[in-house]
Each structure stands twice: as C-alpha cells, then as structure tokens.
Amino acid sequence: MLDHIILAVSDLPRSVAFYERALAPLGITHFFDYDGEDGHPDLKGFGRDGKGFFWLKAGEPSAAAVHFAFVAESREAVDAFYSAAMSAGARDNISPRVRAEYDPMYYAADILDPDGYSVEVVIKV
Asked: pTM of this prediction?
C-alpha cells in the first residue's frame, strides 16, 4: 500500500489501460477521475478499499528519478502482477524471485511500465 504518488505519463489513456490490467491482481482499480481546476492537473486515480493512492497525470515523464513498490498479500499475487504487467506491455526489470540481498523473506518482481518507470510489487513474509 502507498499513501499516494502522482506520476506524469506521456500517453494518459495508454497508461490508464496499462495500470488497469497490471494492478488488477493486487485488487487495485481505476476508480476515480479528478477534473483539475485552478491550476491543478486532471488526475486518473487508482486505489483499493475506497482509498486513492496512485494517480496519473499527463506530462513529461522522468522515469529515471522514480521507483515505487506496492505491497502484495502473497507470492502468488507478486507472480500474478508480473504476468499481468508483462501481458499489458511491460518490460522485465527483475522477474519474480527471492531478493535475499535485502532480506531472506523479500519476494518481489519489478517491471518497467510504458514510460520506463520501475514498478515493484513485494511481499516480505
């Protein structure tokens, strides 16, 4: 779970479609669109359990400066995220596996989204 993050993406409809598919195995859905006003940009909101925490906006991406990770509830959810993301057009960054260099219980996958953002999903139990 995240509190929130906002990413600028180069093609908003493409990224919304990508994240709808990639995050579905985690129970994270596209549930709210905010029509910006007073200088605030339009946002496409994703979340779970009525809480929005992942937002997309149109703009110039700066993927090299950003890495974020979502919490998974099981290793199977990590694997399902990876499969869904890859089938939605992700590029592999780190396939699902134990990352013992961090912790013996750290199981994660990391993909690169359509703009090159590094998106990790992890469980640590």
From this structure: 0.86
Cα separation, 84 vs 20, whole angstroms? 10
CA angle 16, 13, 45 (to 5 degrees): 40
| Span 49-93, pLDDT tens digits | 988 899 999 999 888 878 899 999 999 999 999 999 999 999 999
CB 89 within 8 A of CB 22: no
Q: Decide if 95 contacts 75 (C-beta within 8 A).
A: no
Q: From the centroid of its chain, how far is CA 109?
A: 11
